[in-house]
Amino acid sequence: MTHRVSLLRVAAAFCVAGAAWSAAPAHAGVFDDNEARRAVLDLRSKTDNLASQLSAAQRTILDQSGRLDQLNQQVATLRGENEDLTNRLTTLERQQKEYYQDLDTRLKKFEPQQATIDGVEGTVQPGETDALSAAQQQFRNGNFKAAAASFRAFIAKYPQSPYQPTAQYWYGNAQYALRDYRGSTATWQGIVSKFPQHPRAADALVAIGTNQLEQGQKAAAKKTFEQVVSQYAGSNAAQTAQGKLETIK
């Protein structure tokens, strides 16, 4: 706004100067030569001064326009830097979140965890589940000797594990598959004695009775099956035992 006023003033001054210049010849007779010369010089001085002011005003406008362009460029640069920093911050936050999630997952492998085994909830130590699963897989693959060794190692390594009844039950199965009938019976009997309320206890009794029946010990087998029917009435093991009893003559 200030520059526009200055330009208007300069233009007005030029108009006045032009009017004075054009009027000079009409009054030439009034002034002598010296006065006319001074008037011309004075007019030229004013004109030069006005021209200088106009030039200065133009330079000021150009200078401020250049500064405005520089400021706009600086603003654009700052916006770009801000966007870059925002993207970096977002990336760092994502990486930090992923890092802590990965760390939490790794730490959980070394922490006791709650697990449900054969319908019974318990706390298992790191490595227990994998060790038992590996032994069971060996049994499923028909590698009974290796499975028996793995179950035996598990039983010794994790004496307080809630997997103990399950591991002992499958250890007895591996012994049975290796024709170690006496050893398998002893293993299953240990489950019945130590963990009578565990779901595998009824299965162990059925296995003992089946072992006895196959060895020709019908009386002992009958007694064992009757114990299952009486002690674990309503269970799948009791139904199996009842079916076995019906085959004994």
UniProtKB/TrEMBL annotation:
It is found in: Periplasm. It holds the Pfam family TolA_bind_tri. InterPro entries: BamD-like, CpoB, CpoB_C, TPR-like_helical_dom_sf, YbgF_tri. Keywords: Cell cycle, Cell division, Coiled coil, Periplasm, Signal. One of its GO terms (cellular component) is outer membrane-bounded periplasmic space. Residues 47-115 form the YbgF trimerisation domain. Residues 54-102 form a coiled coil. Residues 129-249 form the Outer membrane lipoprotein BamD-like domain. Residues 1-28 form the signal peptide. Belongs to the CpoB family. HAMAP family: CpoB. This is Cell division coordinator CpoB. It comes from Burkholderia aenigmatica. The lineage of its organism: Bacteria, Pseudomonadati, Pseudomonadota, Betaproteobacteria, Burkholderiales. The gene is cpoB.
